[in-house]
Amino acid sequence: MAERRKRKGTPVSGPARPWWMRSLLTAGWLLCLLALGGWGLDYANDPKTLPLKVIRINGEFSHLQPERLQQVVAKAIDGGFFSVDMARVRKAVVTLPWVAEASVRRVWPHTLVM
């Protein structure tokens, strides 16, 4: 039996693979990573995956009821945590009378803060 001995400074490796096999293996790994990344993006953008459960409204209310504002925001929400259209929500709030400015942001894991 032939024994492999590790010489100092030289690693022991198996037989060299041909270039086409290395390329095929690399392409296969890249394809798997791309498929996994695409699935992850699709999963994250699904509104059912991470639904928004809390709408927190901060600010001063003198001429507008917070309940009315919450109704408008709830109607403008069309997705989950990652897929909600923040510009659409902000625009819906700003179009209300007596609203001068609005900012909308996400807070992990299921909150929308204004």
How is this structure best described in words?
There is one protein chain. With 114 residues, the protein is mainly alpha-helical. The protein has three helices and three strands, in the order αβααββ. The protein has helices at 19-45, 66-76, 86-94, and strands spanning 54-56, 105-107, 111-113. Strands 1-3-2 form a three-stranded mixed beta sheet, covered by helices on one side. Strand 2 (105-107) and strand 3 form a beta hairpin. Helix 2 (66-76) runs antiparallel to helix 3 (86-94). The longest helix has 27 residues, at 19-45. It is rod-shaped. The N and C termini lie far apart (75 Å).
Question: Secondary-structure blueprint of this entry?
Answer:
Layout: H1 19-45, E1 54-56, H2 66-76, H3 86-94, E2 105-107, E3 111-113
Parallel strand pairs: 1-3
Antiparallel strand pairs: 2-3
Helix pairs in contact: 2-3
What's the mean pLDDT score? Answer: 79
Strand order of the largest sheet: 1-3-2
* Number of separate helices: 3
What general outline do the C-alpha atoms trace?
Answer: rod-shaped
Structural class: mainly alpha
* Model regions low in confidence, pLDDT < 50 over at least 5 residues: none
Oligomer: single chain
Measured as a percent range, the helix fraction is 40-55%
Computed over alpha carbons, the radius of gyration is 27 Å
Biggest beta sheet attributes: 3 strands, mixed
Distance between the termini: 75 Å
- What is the total tally of β strands? 3
Elements, N to C (H/E): HEHHEE
Strand content range = 5-15%
